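To illustrate the input format used throughout this study, we show a single complete record. The first block contains the structure-token representation of the backbone; no residue identities are included at this stage. The design step must infer an amino acid for every position from geometry alone.
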């Protein structure tokens, strides 16, 4: 779009301030600004401050428990191994986050979790994948979602690490989309006079960005039916776990979620529930305290299954999540922006970043199998530098699982 048309379009949206410095820019900068503007998803911005939704009626979710899994392990594993051998499952690594809590400037997967030797989070996760490869005798495709800012470093690291022993032709990178940051009135910020403030659009963008990237062609060509989506920050992450895949297939569910029993009512994890009869993940900050603490007759937490960011989705059912139906979330942040012609870097929140979340995709599925896993064996998130869910706690758990650090 040229300047005139862009201006008219922005006026309609109440965002014409984005062109206020246009007259001061050189030709290259002007092109850059118009290109940035063309990438804005205005549907999310318009709803800022109007997003309060009423929660539906909550009920605890059923799960395949550890006991049931132990009894039926052989049956589940056989079905999962068959699906993998037939090439029906691929994995999606969510590595587009900013890892701000960890305070590590590079891609989180490059963080060295080793003590006496180098062991990146990526490498540790690929070591876990090697066990599945050994069991099935086959490789599965892995789509790696990066962000604009960490893509080059991630791709380079994979290359120089020899793809951690995995065949390079099975690893595919794509960059996630961006979403605009805006002030409390919904006015989009300029990051520089010629750049719109655009940040990664949250981990809910993984499927739409994958389709947009053109990599969906591999899925079609290879007749892949399921995607196992997982986060980069769990060093005990079990990827394409045959037991999990088999259980979800045998139970006939549209998706599956690996869950752990919460350690206490206030643990900061999203909980898999039913909302108005449909599967839903309720974030810890959204769940009423009374519900969090409610107990069963046996004295267990009623809402006890915390999600670990490891989901299995049936691809056919994911298409309904495309067309912008995921609700936007607005995270209040300190956002660098241009104010009165000068770039300011505030130290307090001044507006919102817009994100969609993978947890909201669960609500769009007809059914979701909560598959309980042993947290000591499968859940060691690296969110913070110290304290809970930190480098220290993850290292302890790795050692407990026999990983030499
Ligand atoms: P988190 O919610 O922990 O976010 O991501 P983060 O950006 O990594 O970390 P903080 O909040 O800034 O400290 C959970 C998973 O979702 C991915 C992350 O890479 C991680 O695997 N993610 C998050 C994306 O891929 N894209 C995003 O925009 C956000």
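Output of the design step:
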């Amino acid at each position: 779009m040229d300047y005139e048309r862009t201006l008219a379009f922005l006026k309609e949206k109440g965002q014409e301030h984005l062109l206020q410095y246009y007259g001061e820019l050189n030709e290259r900068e002007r092109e850059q600004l118009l290109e940035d503007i063309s990438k804005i998803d205005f549907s999310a911005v318009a709803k800022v401050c109007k997003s309060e939704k009423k929660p539906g009626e909550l009920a605890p979710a059923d799960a395949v428990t550890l006991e049931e899994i132990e009894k039926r392990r052989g049956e589940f594993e056989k079905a999962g191994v068959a699906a993998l051998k037939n090439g029906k499952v691929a994995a999606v690594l969510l590595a587009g986050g900013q890892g701000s809590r960890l305070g590590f400037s590079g891609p989180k997967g490059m963080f060295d979790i080793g003590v006496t030797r180098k062991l990146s989070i990526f490498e540790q996760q690929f070591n876990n994948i090697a066990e599945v490869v050994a069991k099935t005798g086959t490789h599965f495709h892995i789509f790696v979602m990066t962000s604009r800012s960490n893509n080059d470093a991630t791709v380079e690291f994979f290359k120089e690490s020899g793809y951690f022993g995995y065949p390079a032709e099975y690893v595919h990178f794509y960059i996630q989309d961006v979403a605009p940051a805006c002030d409390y009135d919904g006015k989009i910020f300029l990051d520089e006079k010629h750049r719109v403030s655009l940040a990664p659009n949250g981990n809910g963008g993984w499927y739409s960005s994958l389709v947009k990237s053109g990599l969906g062609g591999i899925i079609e060509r290879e007749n892949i039916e399921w995607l196992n989506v997982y986060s980069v920050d769990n060093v005990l992450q079990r990827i394409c776990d045959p037991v999990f895949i088999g259980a979800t297939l045998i139970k006939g569910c549209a998706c599956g979620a690996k869950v752990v029993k919460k350690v206490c009512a206030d643990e900061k994890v999203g909980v898999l529930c039913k909302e108005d009869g449909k599967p839903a993940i309720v974030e810890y900050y959204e769940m009423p305290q009374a519900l969090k603490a409610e107990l069963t007759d046996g004295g267990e937490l009623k809402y006890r299954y915390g999600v670990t960011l490891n989901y299995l989705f049936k691809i056919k059912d994911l298409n309904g999540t495309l067309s912008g139906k995921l609700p936007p979330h607005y995270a209040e942040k300190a956002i660098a922006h241009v104010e009165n012609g000068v770039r300011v870097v505030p130290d307090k929140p001044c507006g919102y970043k817009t994100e969609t979340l993978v947890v909201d995709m669960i609500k769009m599925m007809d059914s979701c199998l909560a598959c309980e896993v042993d947290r000591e064996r499968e859940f060691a998130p690296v969110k913070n530098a110290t304290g809970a869910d930190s480098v220290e706690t993850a290292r302890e758990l790795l050692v407990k699982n026999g990983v030499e650090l």
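Structural context for interpreting the output: The mean pLDDT is 92. The first helix runs from residue 3 to 13.
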